[in-house]
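step: validate -> pass
step: tokenize input -> pass
step: predict -> running
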Amino acid sequence: MPDTVNSVFSVLGTLALIILIFVGAYWCTKLVGKHYGGRMGGASSSMKVLDRLTLGADSSLVIVKVNEKVLLLGVAQQHITLLQELDAELYPDEKPQGTDGKTAPFSDVLKNSLQNWGIKLPDKTGKKGD
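step: predict -> pass
step: emit ->
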């Protein structure tokens, strides 16, 4: 009987430790997101990183939209170089629009994405899709 009780407490302790690790990871990502959020394009409306291609350990190509200009930048450890100005018409603002001109709700964006991947969803009446 004491072995069974020890086993139960061991399993519960392990489960509590796993939950604590997940909570700690969640908290750390929230903290890092708040700290770096403004630097990664989230806070600025006039500057946005559109795409990034890592070339090596310390170098990458970055496409940045600044106001109405789209720039291709070479980023290395010690410097940033303007490589080319790109055609801004090729990089429109890609915000899904709802019927009223506002940003579409997340549920609509998710539903459209799942349908594009070929996943059939039940309709609101509870009937299965095609």
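step: describe -> The chain is about 35% helix and 20% strand.
step: cleanup -> pass
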